[in-house]
Amino acid sequence: MTDAERPAIAIHDLCKTYDSGFEALKRINLSIRRGEIFALLGPNGAGKTTLIGIVCGIVRPSSGQVLADGFDVVRDYRQARSKIGLVPQELSTDTFETVWATLRFSRGLFGKPPNPAHLEQVLRDLSLWDKRHSKIMQLSGGMKRRVLIAKALAHEPDILFLDEPTAGVDVELRRDMWQMVAKLRQRGVTIILTTHYIEEAEQMADRIGVINHGELLVVEDKHILMRKLGKKQLLLSLQDALESMPDSLADLPLELDTGGERLIYTFDSQDERTGIAGLLRRLQEQGIAFRDLHSRESSLEDIFVDLVRAQR
Ligand SMILES: Nc1ncnc2c1ncn2[C@@H]1O[C@H](COP(=O)(O)OP(=O)(O)OP(=O)(O)O)[C@@H](O)[C@H]1O
């Protein structure tokens, strides 16, 4: 396999059972391509942080194998880890050290020779250059988050993990972060992120993985996922509210919404026959009049909620 063909991360039959006996990951198989932005989505407790922890060598797998750029994360821990930058969820950066010293030290930990020009670039990209001599504990929460990212990039990793990068950050920082992600991607860095803001994944990611109860439910190209699992809906605002769905319409994929004031008709966006003409005819026969109608397509969030619900 050439360098270009080798996946950034290759996960084979990965299982994790914590000492408590809790099975956090159940035979995960996943290959992350070089240079892609991969969004890992899942509800609370799904196993995302456990998975990231294993890839980054923080959590020990129970069985299975993970390769980062070809290096086994357990056996070749140092080489594997040097390929990876991790921006963790938690802020554990409250130190007396300055921003600059922290970055220099972090780079040194990975055995990389000093490179002040690289560190300067990272700090400038994150609007932290003016703060380089500040002690980290004196920075604001948003600035500390920027430092976490800078720290993860100090050793020039090829693979970057962002665990809930935008949870609780303000609009400006969120925008800066996404600009930075776009820039890193242009340089060929592989980016894996978890987020509760599914809209962000919808905008940024090339591929989406959905995990729940330690199982990967889907891994798919974002556009294919939206096309395959996306539904379209026709929303009809009724002239007069209905108390309940008339029996005569029970055979249709219809729901009554907002106190009987709206009918929602769901159809498959791939299907040529939408059934809308038939629906409108039947409504007319029933004397159900509407004052407005519009259509909407399911968002990634709708698809995500459906997938997780279906597993339950
Ligand atoms: N050290 C541990 N011992 C026992 N169980 C654990 C441990 N760490 C995590 N778990 C359990 O494993 C499951 C997965 O946790 P994990 O943190 O990986 O989920 P997550 O998808 O990252 O959730 P969140 O979105 O809330 O961060 C949870 O049920 C959690 O309680």
Automatic annotation (TrEMBL):
The keyword Transport is annotated on this UniProt entry: yes
Domain (ABC transporter): residue spans on this chain: 9-238
InterPro entries assigned to the protein according to its UniProt record, in alphabetical order: AAA+_ATPase (IPR003593), ABC_transporter-like_ATP-bd (IPR003439), ABC_transporter-like_CS (IPR017871), ABC_transporter_ATP-binding (IPR050763), P-loop_NTPase (IPR027417)
Keyword annotations: ATP-binding, Nucleotide-binding, Transport
Pfam families in UniProt: ABC_tran
Molecular functions per Gene Ontology: ATP binding; ATP hydrolysis activity
Coiled coil location: none
PANTHER family the UniProt entry points to: ABC TRANSPORTER ATP-BINDING PROTEIN (PTHR42711:SF10)
Protein name: ABC transporter ATP-binding protein
